[in-house]
Design a protein that fits this description.
Blueprint (H helix, E strand, L loop, with lengths): L2 H13 L13 E7 L5 E6 L8 E8 L4 E8 L9 E8 L2 E2 L5 E3 L2 E8 L2 E7 L4 E5 L8 E9 L2 E8 L4 E7 L7 E7 L12 E4 L4 E7 L4 E8 L8 E7 L12 E5 L3 E8 L2 E8 L7 E7 L13 E6 L5 E7 L3 E4 L9 E2 L12 E10 L2 E12 L6 E8 L15 E6 L2
Antiparallel strand pairs: 1-29, 2-3, 3-4, 4-5, 6-8, 7-8, 8-9, 9-10, 11-12, 12-13, 13-14, 15-16, 16-17, 17-18, 19-20, 20-21, 21-22, 23-24, 24-25, 25-26, 27-28, 27-30, 28-29
Length: 411
């Protein structure tokens, strides 16, 4: 490393632009108004796999009569300038908005409409909507999306047959075929809303779900297999679901060595780190009571982000419910830290996030967490940003005049 590069990197560290590995010290929060309606559900992703992608944010909201669905494009530098909004749906029976999948310039967003699984798809130019084949007869109450090198995978819960079902697309979400199933309970049974998380390069997918006895389990499968082989591991025994009272949200993310899932365990926030090599070696944390009576919403959503080091190993998890928890994955001996400056603590409502990395050549200038959540104090949806732990990397070539760029990692 040359003298200039060392001095520059040192100045970034001392100025706080780069934080030392694993400190978890919260940065200042910034919020950017993006939509003037209060979200019942909200998801954040990206419009392309390129650097400096436009953010893709989808908001489900109620206009006083019907539920509506709008897609919002937020271009870099993500400061609220240049935002455009596209109307997608307007009907009473919209719910269960799933994670946003991106394959090249194609964007896929699953959700439930009239108890069918619907797909909103952006092809780089325009949005279209279609019903997922095989979901028009029975009733469905959950939808999620994730990708691997084998394609786009939609997971859903068939309420009529009491099972989790998967559909696969090999053409960037243009068409789907049925992929696999196993028995499970879903949100309208009173069970956990099942998330889907994948490792893009390693080709495995994992979920955490609940069966009719109340047992919480993980299911793991290799997306290269067709049909899939599901391997199940018990996580914890909870009371058997006895019918719908409120949605017990769940969220999952790839953490470098497996997945981390957080879910509403009958009013308590749980976070479980599950290694891909041996799911039975999971570690579980109880993060405390979930407040479903916020100042603006009578429900509380949750999300999880995982920060990886330069070797793509888990460094820090960021878990949000009504509070903001930071902890080291797979290390239960170290208690989680709390962000006491969490700006939408106690508000309630949905939350979803991405990890945003700002680089200059080969130097990580900083990492930020981008969250979409309710505007505090008035109707609206905001983009909240906060600097998080970074693991700075330097390699020869920085002083060659490379310009800064953004990259995103979204569940």
């Amino acid at each position: 490393m040359c003298k200039f590069a060392f001095i520059f990197l040192l100045s970034l560290l001392t100025s706080g632009l780069i934080r030392a590995e694993g400190t978890g010290a919260p940065g200042n929060w910034i919020n950017v108004p993006i939509f003037n309606q209060a979200p019942l559900e909200a998801k954040i992703g990206i419009f392309s796999d390129d650097i400096n992608p436009d953010l893709a944010i989808v908001v489900l909201w109620n206009d006083g009569n019907n539920n509506r669905l709008d897609a919002i494009k937020v271009p870099p530098p993500y400061d609220g300038t240049g935002i455009t909004t596209t109307f997608l749906e307007n009907t009473n029976n919209l719910f269960a908005l799933g994670d946003i999948c991106t394959d090249g310039i194609n964007v896929v967003v699953p959700y439930i409409k009239n108890f069918n699984v619907e797909i909103a798809r952006f092809n780089g130019l325009s949005w279209s909507k279609s019903t997922l084949p095989g979901t028009k007869t029975n009733n469905f109450d959950n939808a999620d999306c994730a990708t691997t090198t084998d394609g786009i995978f939609i997971s859903t819960h068939d309420l009529s047959d009491g099972e989790t079902e998967f559909f696969k697309s090999n053409n960037s979400g243009n068409s789907y075929t049925f992929y696999g199933r196993y028995m499970s309970s879903g949100p309208f049974d009173g069970a956990i809303r099942e998330p889907l998380a994948t490792s893009f390069g390693d080709r495995y997918a994992m979920t955490v779900y609940q069966n009719s006895s109340g047992m919480v389990r993980t299911a793991k499968f290799n997306t290269a297999d067709n049909p899939p082989v599901f391997n199940h591991t018990n996580i914890e025994q909870l009371p058997a679901p006895t019918g719908f009272t409120f949605v017990k949200e769940g969220a999952g993310v790839f953490n470098g060595a497996g997945i981390t899932v957080t879910y509403n365990a009958n009013g308590s926030a749980k976070a479980v780190d599950i290694p891909a090599t041996d799911p039975s070696a999971f570690t579980s944390r109880d993060l405390g009571i979930i407040n479903n009576n916020g100042s603006q919403f009578n429900f509380q959503g949750g999300t999880v982000l995982s920060v990886l080091d330069e070797n793509n190993q888990p460094m820090q998890n960021n878990v949000l419910w009504g509070d903001y928890h930071l902890y080291r994955p797979f290390n239960p001996s170290i208690p989680p830290e709390e962000d006491n400056n969490f700006p939408f603590a106690g508000v309630g409502g949905p939350v979803d996030g991405c990890v945003a990395r700002k680089t200059e050549g080969t130097v990580d200038l900083f990492l930020q967490a981008f969250f979409v959540a309710s505007r505090v104090g008035s109707d609206g949806t905001d983009l909240f940003k906060r600097e998080i732990a970074a693991d700075p990397i330097f390699a020869d070539g920085f002083e060659s005049g490379d310009v800064s760029s953004w990259s995103m990692t979204c569940p």
